[in-house]
Amino acid sequence: MRAAIDALAAALRAGLDPEADPPRSVVPVRHGQLLLMPAEWGRYAGVKIATVAPGNPSRGLSRIQGQYLLLDGETLTPLEVLDAVALTAVRTAAVSAVAVDALAEPDAARLVVFGAGPQARSHVEALRLVRPVSEIVVVGRDPGRARAFAAAVGGRVGSPSDVAGADLVACCTTACEPLFDGALLAPHATVVAVGSHEPEAREVDDETVRRSTVAVESRATALRESGDVIQAVRAGACSPGDLVGLAAAVRGEVKAAPDAPRLFKSVGMAWEDLVIAARSYEARESA
């Protein structure tokens, strides 16, 4: 996770432009979606072929499955095939940690996590690497899973109202409706929302967006795929011009308002998979 966070931040500082990423191809099928996510950066190209099957957890299978093909950027020769589930679990949390490191207060210690699945677990790991997290509150739909996850990470089970005392809030769910009341957020709080890449789904409400400095991986992608952003723009809670690009935040070109919450909305992008796959490949090649 530490290597993934460092690789993403280094690529953004080196000039990677998330706006140049090709759009994700999403093909609906009877039991979910087929996703195709190509990218090119530096000496590499690559493509993730993934599936999203909402009914899989009830069968004991992963909701997201797939493979990542890493290619040499010049010859387009295949170099390596990686497990897309493992790659996605790492990259999603790693990009959240990059955003938190750029936006959140240095002493942010109290974390509220919505969700109790693989992304919630990865986010606890990643955010602990960039901020001094000492208290964790878990909010989940399934009480048993929430208790088990809270015990595993040394936290406790709470409720949506716990965001009122949070320094950090991580939304790692498949929710289609807002998880908490944005009016409860403290002015110094930082929220990351990673649960969906669909215009009709959202984890945060208009009030969260209205109050916050809103950072996104790519403006164009957020306005195409992020229900949290699209619906808030439609409601007049923000305008497209208000959105802050993650690359600009990482490079220190823009700063969050000091007296307002910060929101990072991630939809997951192909450049993130490519950067981490390349770092993984180079680490094995040099071993």
Automatic annotation (TrEMBL):
<protein>
    <submittedName>
        <fullName>Ornithine cyclodeaminase family protein</fullName>
    </submittedName>
</protein>
<dbReference type="InterPro" id="IPR003462">
    <property type="entry name" value="ODC_Mu_crystall"/>
</dbReference>
<dbReference type="GO" id="GO:0005737">
    <property type="term" value="C:cytoplasm"/>
</dbReference>
<dbReference type="Pfam" id="PF02423">
    <property type="entry name" value="OCD_Mu_crystall"/>
</dbReference>
<dbReference type="InterPro" id="IPR036291">
    <property type="entry name" value="NAD(P)-bd_dom_sf"/>
</dbReference>
<dbReference type="InterPro" id="IPR023401">
    <property type="entry name" value="ODC_N"/>
</dbReference>
